[in-house]
Write a structure and sequence with these properties.
The structure holds two protein chains of two kinds. Chain A is mainly β. Chain A contains no helices and eleven strands. By secondary structure, chain B is an all-beta fold. In chain B, strands 2, 4, 5, 9, 10 and 11 form a six-stranded mixed beta sheet that branches. In chain B, strands 1-3-8-7-6 form a five-stranded antiparallel beta sheet, with no helix packed on it. Classes of the chains: A mainly beta, B mainly beta.
């Protein structure tokens, strides 16, 4: 049983560069979430997908951020023109939800730690 | 607005004693409450949950209590073990919506 995997684990970039993270959810899970966590804070919701459809985006997600889940399996999160304030742990989670019901139990990956210099 | 609050940034407990982690919330419409545990360099892992229609849920050494009138929940760990040392996040969910997390409490269990 493979859990949620995220790649890379760490990313160091210079301000103004673009970065892309990948998330592979648990294979039978139809929902995929992106969260961001900064030091001393809990995870903050960014966006989520049900299959390939992006159903909700947080106002935290500026237009420099874009997420895709093209085939309803893996997802990518891209940040364009990175800023120092983007430095955080980016967490991906997945769950299995039937219809419009929400399965409250999310399974998280180990995250991608982004450092913008 | 912070809908889920964990007011204690850290807690230190002796091995074998009880650990009590607290959480307050402001939204009375939450349907479910969850606790997650997080070790360094790992993602949060689900620990225990409770529906808003219940006031207690127990799973081994872990018990979660919900007081809806006070909008308060707590996680009890008995007996505490050194391996329980981690960051504990309280989270809340309204059906059809996403999980909202508190800021976390660092638990240190001393042997």
């Amino acid at each position: 049983d493979t859990g949620v995997s995220q790649d890379p684990r760490h990313k160091i970039t210079k301000r103004g560069q673009n970065v892309t993270f990948r998330c592979d959810p648990i294979s039978e899970h139809n929902r995929l979430y992106w969260y961001r966590q900064t030091l001393g804070q809990g995870p903050e919701f960014l966006t989520y997908f049900q299959n390939e459809a992006q159903l909700e985006k947080s106002r935290l997600l500026s237009d420099r951020f874009s997420a895709e889940r093209p085939k309803g399996s893996f997802s990518t999160l891209e940040i364009q023109r990175t800023e120092q304030g983007d430095s955080a742990m980016y967490l991906c989670a997945s769950s299995l939800s039937l219809g419009m019901a929400t399965n409250e139990k999310l399974f998280f990956g180990s995250g991608t730690q982004l450092s913008v210099l | 607005d912070q809908q889920v609050k964990q007011n204690s940034p850290s807690l230190s407990v002796q091995e074998g004693r009880i650990s009590i982690l607290n959480c307050d919330y402001t939204n009375s419409m939450f349907d479910y409450f969850l606790w997650y545990k997080k070790y360094p360099a790992e993602g949060p892992t689900f620990l225990i949950s409770i529906s808003s229609i219940k006031d207690k849920n127990e799973d081994g050494r872990f018990t979660v209590f919900l007081n809806k009138s006070a909008k308060h929940l707590s996680l009890h760990i008995v007996p505490s073990q050194p391996g329980d040392s981690a960051v504990y996040f309280c989270a809340a969910l309204k059906y059809g919506n996403k999980l909202v997390f508190g800021a976390g409490t660092i638990l240190r269990v001393k042997s």
